[in-house]
Specification:
The chain contains 5 helices and no strands. It has helices at about 5-10, 20-30, 40-55, 60-85, 90-115. It starts with a helix and ends in a 14-residue tail after the last helix. The chain is elongated and about 55 Å long. By secondary structure, the chain is mostly helical.
Length: about 130
């Protein structure tokens, strides 16, 4: 029979997979955008700081940090366009939709990064290569 420790043991990662530390920092790169809820432009500054600090020492964080920064720049552009469209009322609906999509996709990206998967946001302008 299998004891509880064997049943709950995490399987070893395949060779070349991000380390637990890299996965955690990759998750932080995505979640750092939530700082934007309380700090203006924090949605970009949070991931940017994590990326700049860890990009040279952790290849997985380099990748995920760039992805998070690019996504949040894209969201900022969408918010500005939606804000302008509030003049014709459709912008209010768009702002709500962009906000919900931003939150859901950020959480999904953080969960995938924590699993060691290189997440790609949909509809993202990849300005930082």
């Amino acid at each position: 029979t299998m004891d509880l420790n064997e049943a709950t043991a995490v399987p070893p990662l395949p060779p070349g997979s991000p380390s637990a530390d890299e996965r955690q920092w990759g998750m932080f790169a995505h979640l750092a955008s939530l700082v934007g809820i309380v700090i203006p432009l924090g949605t970009i500054l949070g991931p940017l700081v994590v990326w700049l600090v860890k990009k040279d020492t952790m290849p997985f964080v380099d990748d995920q940090g760039k992805e998070a920064v690019n996504f949040n720049i894209t969201v900022l552009i969408a918010v500005i366009v939606s804000g302008l469209l509030t003049l014709v009322l459709i912008g209010f609906v768009l702002l709500f939709a962009v906000g919900i999509a931003w939150l859901v996709l950020t959480i999904m990206a953080a969960m995938k990064a924590n699993e060691g998967a290189a997440y790609r946001y949909p509809f993202t302008l990849r300005l930082i290569k």
